[in-house]
Amino acid sequence: MVSLLIEEAKAVTNCTEFSLCVFDHNEAAKSLYQSLGFQVVSLEKGSEKIFGRYWTALEMKAQF
What Pfam family is a match for this entry (predicted)? Predict the structure, then answer.
């Protein structure tokens, strides 16, 4: 599904670089994005407070 979204975005917008954010503890999402060519480019510790806990966010980018 994500790869279809990327292909559609490339076709419609001519974008060649995509970025996204994912929480550090979300191993399944990180693995999926890495398998599609995304790499971590920055880390923001404690970026969001959810249910009384601070979560770390990763920014990931890919070029196609």
Answer: Acetyltransf_4
